[in-house]
Amino acid sequence: MDTKxxxxxxxxxxxxxxxxxxxxxKTLSDMTxxxxxxxxxxxxxxxxxxxxxxxxxxRDRERKLIAKIKEAIKRIEGGTFGTCESxxxxxxxxxxxxxxxxxxxxxxxxxxxxxxxx
Length: 118
Ligand SMILES: [Zn+2]
What we know:
Blueprint: H1 3-32, H2 42-78, H3 93-98, H4 106-117
Helix pairs in contact: 1-2
The structure holds zinc ion.
Zinc ion binds next to helix 4.
């Protein structure tokens, strides 16, 4: 893959990770500052609880995405970025730019999705 494209993907990944990290940090401080004891009403408490569950689920998704981004950056450094994990073929550059965390070429991805549907 072209060095310029690689660099572009790496920048995009880094930027996305920074945004996620900032977001996760914000969520964390929101949770720490949660005035739990200031909600004596059980209804408010329940609402707060479900808010918190939602936040935790969100953070789980963010964490997984951050892990994916880290792997993608490692692949860039290891020189395997843009190589399909399943068939070892090259993944379309267009696809890598649009979604740099991609690990499979469109053919393998489509095959895997058809497998899931079945
Ligand atoms: Zn493939």
